[in-house]
């Protein structure tokens, strides 16, 4: 049994699932190499295997039995993988020398896609004791919740459509503006254009993906991998935090911070989730972002009134995980199937920036508050930006000099 020790720089569980318990059986968990390496484990001994260079994503390598042949999946990967999330409030204290207001902040590197149920929001409706709302704030921007509007009842409802997909959820439909809400014996849900959030009571739901045969991708630590293709006569049983279905038309994401159980047959998926379940149109990036959104608990804190800056996420899912004194810490991760680039421009003069990854620590070049990182698939790292709080730095901030954002990037 492996025991992980040391100080892990990447905040596993804060803005990313806490995969540490999966390291007990590592060879059946593709992607766990990064966590092993960060905790100081770069060699393992496994009976009944030859010497292997066990790699993931072209980034991380753990030597098995003194090394040898290249390997990605030396053993059949697990088909049941979930992990916990640690609730976090990224704003612990004000940035030094920066005027702050008691506000919420969008810590995500994107504007949320999915409706929030029974959480603070900006656009909000109330139905039968529940609130359903949207957060429209840009990345790293401050926002305040708005009162909920009681939504009028529209009538009975039996099926939710997202692209070609159909989800059978019988109940009563309520609608106000761009928000729709549904209640029924299974629970309560909110629907907007391409995304749905359902608060279920654990009952099974039937999803018709719109394709008879389809590919299934499952979230493993750091990245999605194709598990199988469902065809005639197949029945695939999976349990995961997030799944992506690819057939005809847009990909379909199914995610839940408490885990999703899925029984898959041609043209039909039976889904069980205890708690929050999201269904989204789009690929791996959207499905993963929906997962992180619903694992987040918005909380007030001392946020700069003009915001912290702006992010370009690429295909990744960066998350602000800490803000205090003179440091801004952003967890940068890319679980998608493609490489990308991450950019953040902060509104304040930057003294220095560094990134901590399972491969080590490295200084990052910054100019005029802009920090840019390559973000290959499977990448994870903690970017720490140190604000210049010297007298000269404060004067530059006050005069709107380099480092102060006047337009979104």
Determine the strand fraction and express it as a percent band: over 45%
Quaternary organisation:
single chain
**How many β strands by DSSP?**
34
Enumerate how many helices there are, as a single number.
3
Mean pLDDT: 90
Shape, per Cα inertia axes: flat
Structural class: mainly beta
Q: How much helical structure, as a percent, in the residues?
A: under 10%
Distance between the termini: 47 Å
Q: What strand order characterises the main sheet?
A: 14-15-16-17-24-22-23-18
Taking pLDDT < 50 over at least 5 consecutive residues as the criterion, the unreliable ranges are 398-409
Radius of gyration: 22 Å
Main beta sheet strand tally, sense and closure: 8 strands, antiparallel, barrel
Please characterize this protein's 3D structure:
With 409 residues, the protein is mainly beta. It contains three helices and 34 strands. It has an eight-stranded antiparallel barrel. A hairpin with a 2-residue loop joins strand 19 and strand 20 (223-230). The longest helix has 12 residues, at 284-295. The N and C termini lie far apart (47 Å). The model is unreliable at 398-409 (pLDDT under 50).
